[in-house]
Design brief:
CATH architecture of the largest domain: 2-Layer Sandwich
Order of helices and strands: EHEHEHEHEHEHEHHHEEEEEEEHHE
Radius of gyration: 20 Å
Number of helices: 11
Number of domains: 2
CATH topology of the largest domain: Dihydrodipicolinate Reductase, domain 2
Distance between the termini: 41 Å
Number of strands: 15
Largest sheet: 9 strands, mixed
Structural class: alpha/beta
């Protein structure tokens, strides 16, 4: 068993430089050995404390000392770089979505199995404090079987315009798959995990709303209804046109023993009984643990050290993209899509 896993981060935008770089530096069994980005200024900011910096990510892939890489690039580059990293013999953490199309995800699954390397999608909601507590309660048997859910996330357009200015790849459907596609995969994976099954039917509506005062970005409003193979039904609701005062997320999950759980943002969970009583957990954490990033990074590092298959794999990334793709196709056609 290796004492430390040698890690490289490819892509030093927000998620690479401000999330995974500090996250990895806070993990005892990880060593951030190298970073790469085409922007030399970003490289200089992150290439510190022993990490080498490169403007060509192939320098990281060609280094036999690097065990694993974190792919933190725009959607349209995820599958290309992930496949190259697998060919180079690296384990890969790839931010979600794994690709903007299902076929690329299937190729990643196949290649990871062929070269016997792990691919972990950035399914961080499974490690977000209140969602992890929800799963713990469900697994304990304290609640019965889920029956129905409602999941909502509202984001202010000013926030997205800061991260993705007008003209960014994210607003180009050919490059990103669309913003609803890009941003829905975490919630989709979360519900697959909590419910323990696969989605069989999707019906969706997506509408773009141009925002001239933020440079002409085109955030979306999106609602889609899903039916799982086990009969559980639910609604995902997203808006990228929210006022900041309403920004946030919630998840309501109902069970067939007349109990329910209500998760608010990333840190509050309520368990409601059949009568007028409830239990409340306030699970405050800080830094890169808030949405589960460091928890998943640590799980990935330890999986490599112990040569144990991670609990979330490329197959999970594929399944999330299948549902997100069905959501887009349903909205385009105005018809339900069967999976």
């Amino acid at each position: 068993m290796k004492k430390k896993i040698q890690c490289g981060v490819i892509g030093l935008g927000f998620i690479g430089s401000r999330v995974h770089v500090p996250s990895l530096r806070g993990i005892k069994r990880a060593n951030l050995a190298a970073v790469a980005d085409i922007d030399e200024k970003l490289v200089k900011k992150s290439a510190k404390r022993g990490a080498e910096g490169f403007t060509d990510y192939h320098e990281i892939l060609d280094n036999p000392e690097i065990d694993a890489v974190w792919v933190c690039l725009p959607n349209f580059l995820h599958s290309k770089v992930t496949l190259e990293a697998l060919e180079a013999g690296k384990h890969v953490f790839c931010e979600m979505p794994l690709s903007k199309n299902v076929e690329d995800c299937e190729e990643i699954v196949s290649k990871s199995q062929e070269v016997k390397r792990y691919v972990v999608p950035g399914a961080t909601f499974r490690w977000t404090p209140n969602f992890a507590k929800m799963k713990e309660i469900m697994d304990s048997g304290e609640v019965a079987s889920p029956t129905m859910f409602y999941q909502r996330e509202y984001i202010a357009p000013s926030i997205l315009a800061d991260q993705w200015p007008a003209g960014s790849w994210a607003w180009d459907r050919e490059k990103s798959g669309g913003t609803s596609f890009t941003l829905s995969v975490w919630a989709i994976d979360l519900m697959r995990w909590l419910i323990g099954g696969e989605v069989s039917r999707v019906y969706a509506s997506v509408r773009k709303i141009e925002q001239p005062k933020y440079g002409g970005v085109t955030p979306e409003n999106c609602q889609f209804h899903v039916t799982f193979e086990n009969g559980v039904t639910g609604v995902f609701e997203r808006s990228e046109n929210s006022p900041r005062s309403m920004e946030g997320s919630e998840l309501r999950l109902l069970f067939d023993d007349n109990k329910a759980m209500y998760a608010i943002d990333n840190d509050v969970l309520e368990l409601h009984q059949e009568e007028y009583d409830k239990r409340v957990w306030k699970l405050f954490v800080t830094g890169t643990r808030v949405w589960g990033h460091q928890q998943l990074d640590r799980h990935f590092v330890n999986s490599i050290r112990k040569e144990k298959t991670p609990s979330v794999t490329a197959v999970d990334g594929l399944k999330a993209v299948e549902v997100a793709d069905a959501m887009v196709r349903s909205s385009d056609s105005g018809k339900a899509v069967e999976l």
